[in-house]
Amino acid sequence: MPVLRDLFIALSENEMLNDASKKVGLKFGTNKVVGGITIEETIERFKDINSQGMSVTFDNLGEFITEKSDAVKEKNNILNMIQAIDDHGVDASASIKLTQIGLHIDYDFCVENVREILDTARNVNMFVNIDMENYSSHDTTVQIVDMMMKEYDNVGTVLQSYLYNSAENVYKYKDHRTRLVKGAYKENPRVALQKKDDIDAAYEQLIRIHLTEGDGFTSIATHDHIIINDMIDFINEQNIPNDKFEFQMLYGFRKELQTELVERGYNVCVYIPFGNQWYAYFMRRLAERPQNINLVLKSITKD
Ligand code: FDA
């Protein structure tokens, strides 16, 4: 349903609706896919997930940050979450978005913020993933990732299979902990594959390369059971040990599949967004799978 996908992506980028959503709390069933507004309530979700045998990576929600003061606020929120995770002894890592901490405001300011987050995380032995956003941020994100990888050993990033350049970058990051995804944004055919079958085939190929070519830990981040089953077959054929990879899924999506994978002995990590800026995140989930609208309908009929 490409029309619906484009509509939800356009809605996710609407600044007015993003601003409005910050004021109303978790609405339309988003509490099923967002861990909480505050750090305290989100830590309780992390504990629930840990008690089900899964680790967590957190995402401080928020995009469209254009003021330095807002970027500092978001960075502090991330630092406070890292501290709270350490205080509570929960099994969680961080996922950060560079546009939230100044990428589009001032390059050096952004780099300084990333270093502060990586230093704080390193002090508590925590891994930080630098998420990959849309293509307009891609080159500067990669530049910062590469610089940080020379300075820190607790940092990794994401490869999006729809981007042509991931076929090269997978070799660059083969010895680093890397999350592999299909890609969530609408990108130009000059830079990205457009057909689902091509994106899926490129995705499986990237995973195979990352699992076998280097020493890096591979995070297979998908809800696609067909790809997960293909990859489990490949992992078994190649005798890849379970401590070299994990499956990652978003909080609230395909919970039964998450549990099944844990029961089969695989590492599963749940990506849990938190904070009041849930709107763009939720719209992108609807763009990926319009059936997720069920979450909205269920919440409306319940209330
Ligand atoms: P896709 O949406 O292609 O679905 C394939 C099939 O899986 C469906 O046809 C259906 O059969 C099944 N399926 C999928 N969702 C289902 C559901 N909810 N219920 C039942 N069946 C379902 N993107 C990005 O650009 N940068 C990033 O940094 C990240 N980070 C990230 C972290 C994590 C942990 C995840 C899981 C994903 C991301 N993504 C991302 C998003 C990613 O790029 C992609 O857009 C989504 O994961 C959707 O693609 P899938 O591979 O999950 O399956």
From TrEMBL:
Keywords: FAD, Flavoprotein, Nucleotide-binding, Oxidoreductase, Proline metabolism. FAD binds at M132, Q160, K182, G183, A184, K196, T222, H223. Residues 44-289 form the Proline dehydrogenase domain. InterPro entries: FAD-linked_oxidoreductase-like, PRODH_bac_arc, Proline_DH_dom, Proline_oxidase. Signal peptide: none annotated. It comes from the Bacteria. Substrate binds at K97, R284, R285. Its cofactor is FAD. Its EC number is 1.5.5.2. This is proline dehydrogenase. It comes from Salinicoccus sediminis.
